[in-house]
Amino acid sequence: MTLTLPPKVTDRAFARLAEINEDAAEAKALRVAVEGGGCSGFQYDIRLDDPGEDDLVLEKDGQKVLVDSVSLPFLTNAVIDFADELIGARFVVENPNATSSCGCGTSFSI
Hints:
Blueprint: E1 8-9, H1 11-22, E2 29-36, E3 42-49, E4 55-60, E5 63-68, E6 79-85, E7 88-94, E8 100-101, E9 107-109
Parallel strand pairs: 1-6, 2-5
Antiparallel strand pairs: 2-3, 3-9, 4-5, 6-7, 8-9
Protein name: Iron-sulfur cluster assembly accessory protein
Organism: Albidovulum denitrificans
InterPro entries: ATAP (IPR016092), ATAP_core_dom (IPR000361), FeS_cluster_insertion_CS (IPR017870), HesB-like_dom_sf (IPR035903)
């Protein structure tokens, strides 16, 4: 029997979400979803959203990251992080389930 673990969210990702929500009139959660498409077959949809009924909610210090039930199997054991690099700042997913990914990191295959 294989143990599957939900995705993890780094402290840096929660901190950046808190910064975003600090200036917002209404705090939103960060949704990380997987959709068909992109140059490698699947792509990440990362956006601010409200929780839904079938969402896994990962929470720290009042900040929430959401993963819907359809995306969850694709994100097993993944790490959701925030990267601030020369090419830009963005939320990123380190996904051990991906067998390949595109150069920009938003598209992957399993």
